[in-house]
Design a protein that fits this description.
Layout (H helix, E strand, L loop, with lengths): L13 E5 L3 H13 L3 E5 L2 H8 L6 E5 L7 H9 L9 E5 L4 H10 L3 E4 L4 H39 L8 H15 L4 H13 L9 H4 L7 H7 L2 H9 L9 H6 L20 H16 L10 H11 L6 H20 L4
Parallel strand pairs: 1-2, 1-3, 3-4, 4-5
The chain binds fe (ii) ion.
């Protein structure tokens, strides 16, 4: 055990141990060090706050009854400092301190260890807390990542004012499809990113083509048809976005083999591409474009029915008509606030 900050090893998890009883302190510190934690020692709450000025531990273990500053005051003071508020905190209590335990619970302390502490209990509770923190961090990273991708997708969409909101709506309908198909959370994650990024390749399509109100010339159309392959080129280096490739590459393939870019047919087209093809077309038809108004819903249903087995995977088209369309209609009648 040491309080030598210069020897800090960032690859080890750091624990701040606040305990006035030196025998208890040494015993617990040794248990932790044997498990390769780096331990910082404080004799009371005040001492603990001093250490927290220099070290940001992964977890704090603190006694309750201590001179100078008791554990409850230490906890309250620490939690009031935003940078320290999220550090997991575990109280060490003696069996004879029920009021202190009650007070701690009211303050939101979740975990207690009753002294004398057994190694296995100590490690179980510490590891559980550290794992929970890791889960939350991963969730935060995932959210930050999704936000970045959304900004990227919207920046492309922003070039084309007529398709404003297209990415968000397509993502929502795709999510509804994934839910209807009982997809796993891992697959749903790929769907969220894939639906958002499906048109990322349009970044290489010039404004005058992208924003053109009239029909495209052959050469413009050729350029437009490159967007799935160009999209894959953009993201294929990003390992975390590999799962978006089938959405980006295959959302313009058609069930009968007449789509682009690879003229894949039937189940040669990845399920992700077949799913996105339906929701992409559905959104294009149900929203206005510069050259036409939004289609009536009965016309849209007709296009989907007719396209089942030619443009669209007939099974997925059935799922869409049966489960997604009613959800869409309910939302149109009763839009979310
Ligand atoms: Fe597209």
């Amino acid at each position: 055990m040491h309080a030598n900050f210069a020897r800090m090893n960032i690859s080890r998890k750091q624990i701040l141990l606040v305990e006035d009883n030196h025998f208890m302190r040494d015993t617990i510190a040794r248990m932790l060090e044997l498990e390769h934690f780096e331990v910082f020692i404080a004799e009371n709450g005040l001492d603990g706050l001093e250490i927290l000025k220099k070290v940001r531990p992964d977890l704090i273990l603190s006694d309750i009854n201590m001179p100078a500053m008791d554990g409850i005051t230490f906890y309250k003071t620490m939690r009031a400092i935003p940078a320290l508020a999220a550090i997991p905190f575990i109280f060490l209590t003696a069996n004879d301190a029920p009021e202190a335990i009650q007070e701690g619970r009211e303050l939101g302390v979740e975990d207690y260890l009753t002294k004398p502490v057994e190694t296995k209990d100590l490690l179980a509770i510490i590891n559980a807390r550290l794992l929970r923190v890791a889960d939350v961090q991963i969730a935060h990273i995932g959210q930050a990542y999704l936000d970045t991708v959304t900004i990227l997708a919207n920046s492309i969409e922003g070039r084309d004012p007529y398709t404003f909101g297209h990415v968000e709506r397509v993502t929502k309908y795709a999510r509804w499809m994934g839910e209807a198909l009982n997809w796993s959370s891992k697959r749903m994650r790929g769907l969220e990113f894939g639906a958002r990024l499906h048109d990322i390749g349009k970044i290489v399509v010039p404004d005058n083509v992208l924003k053109k109100a009239g029909p495209l010339s052959q050469s413009e159309w050729n350029l437009m048809q490159q967007h799935p392959t160009r999209g894959v080129k953009i993201i294929h280096e990003i390992k975390l976005l590999r799962e978006t490739i089938p959405y980006i590459l295959c959302h313009h393939e058609k069930w009968d083999g007449t789509g682009y870019p690879n003229r894949l047919k039937g189940e040669e087209i990845p399920l992700e591409g077949r799913l996105l093809a339906i929701v992409d077309v559905f959104d294009a038809l149900t929203t206005a474009r510069p050259y036409r108004a939004a289609r009536k819903l009965e016309e849209v249903v007709h296009v989907l029915r007719k396209g089942a087995g030619t443009h669209f995977d007939p099974y997925l088209a059935g799922v869409f008509l049966e489960k997604i369309l009613p959800r869409y209609m309910a939302e149109v009648e009763n839009p979310p606030a």
